[in-house]
Amino acid sequence: MSGRAGLVRIAVVGDCPVFRHGVSQLIDTTPDLRLVAAAPSVDKADGCLRGAEVVLMDLQQTGPSLTAAVTKLRERGHAVLVVSPSPQIDAVQVIQAGASGYLSRQAEADEVLRAIRTVGSGLSYVSAPASHLVKRSPGFTEREQEILRLLANGSTDQEIAVELGISKHTVHSHLDRIGEKAGSRRRPDLTRIAVEQGLTSSE
To answer: What is the mean predicted confidence (pLDDT) over 138-145?
Structure first.
């Protein structure tokens, strides 16, 4: 999913004014991104979200409230990128609710932009502290774990091939085996599994 002429249209929803204004300014000064709305809550942004492809959300809410907001936005066709509001909210919760991305609050500006572009292109992006996640499953080989980690952090099949020094065909073969073990070949499902198995990086 990408905007006209390559632009990705973003709405920023955050209840911290400093964060909201800072991210809005960052997007405004980035040529391939367009800010369409900035609001302190989903309800207050309601009328302005129609043109947004990606909603970057940073709300100090409880788990149920946050996941309900994610679900609401997904049902309206928006890709959702959640900034971790607290140590009690982990990536598994928001990914299971339908979020396409999860960012640590410690993310630098370049990572925020990378995550927005990745989610805006229809892929998933997860940057999560491993302490929030369960231990990795022994069911995946070391190479399959590497591929799942790269996939969860937004890499395309071609980028995975280059990173690991293997062919794209070999990547597809690994993904087929991962899909058989996981019960799904869909990228959102594999991203969720990578998060649940602690295979994401916080780089």
So the answer is: 80
